[in-house]
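Pilot study result, target chain (424 residues):
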Amino acid sequence: MPGSLPAIAAAQQVAITSGYPLATDSGPGSIVAGPDGALWFTEYLANNIGRITTAGAVTTYAVPTFDAGPSGITVGPDNALWFTEENPSANKIGRITTAGKFTEYPLPTAQSYPGSIALGPDHALWFTETGTNKIGRITTAGAVTEYPVPTANSGLGGITAGPDGAIWFTEYFGDKIGRITTAGVITEYPVPTGPNTGLGPAGITAGPDGALWFTDSNSTIGSANDIGRITTAGVVTEYPLPSEDSGASGITTGPDGALWFTESSFSTGNSGHITTAGVITECPVPTRSSSPCWITAGPDGALWFTEAAARIGRSTTAGVITEYPIPNSQDSLAGITTGPDGALWFTEFSYSGNRMGKIGRSTTAGAITEYPVPGKNMPSRRSAWPRSSRTNIRTSYGSRSWLIAMREPWWARGWRPTNISPAT
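Predicted structure:
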């Protein structure tokens, strides 16, 4: 493959202000810069919407519906925050003003499991329904319309507005890229390498070349392992990644006009970039098995990403990577975004259940501060995952059948393989 491996900076210890471990993990996941100069985030386990100022003052707002499972969040055209309530007991789209006032809108179809949400070109909010296999649309007045995806059990993942005035989304199990017009007309485009395994694209973003770019995220048994490009006319091109079983995950446009992505497989742990001409360069993260996930362009002309290995990664456009550890190595990192103060803000959660979730802030020099998030309004089923978040699939490779355990965590934009074993 074209491209050469860049120089790597050693992991560094930097100035850290420690957080304050408290009773329980609130499960912060998605995070977005709000219209009020603060950062807003979802707390899946604590059932809250959180707000943090750039000075670190945290306010949490309890979602009215108990055990709603707030998941994706985005800013609406009305300067309110819109979010999905993923748990079947809720099955709603939520709205919260910057003053903390909630409105909730029930979805027509039960157990729809709304996940990803994005602002559309028609000033409506568009979202995925993994449980009912539909794309949903909600106006700022709360009118909901659902559109069935033609391919059954498609495994809806990422969703984004395209440059053609349509909404584009990924189908992880359907091995397709979907397009829906604002009038609700859906077209699906097969991904060439997907049908080998029944596992396909996850992350998707609009590129600088007028096309959509996506990650073909299968990280198992030597199958589809690509960065894909689809034109607005539906022409798909795939570019194989040099590393096998990379688990390509997050993707975003960089300041250099390339597409930057993460490879979340524990066997690789790379970031990388691909030019619009298809030239790929992989950049190994110094910490092996770091499992980088979300990635965003920073205010300093670099790319910043979160690692499951309790670090924030920074990559220059030349591919020089520096890692900044957070204080507790048992925490994992999820969403990341640029704040209005020119810093990077990210979410932290703990699998152990004995520490509180946090919001982290990193300056472009790597100085990290953590702000604990109160865990009030904790649902009784705090350790439960939504039904749509776990599944097992069978596939064939070579002469054997395999059972692959899949999970769609609330912080991920699509399904991710977590385990593979011979099928019995």
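One observation from the pilot: The first strand starts at residue 16 and ends at 17. A full batch analysis is planned for the follow-on phase.
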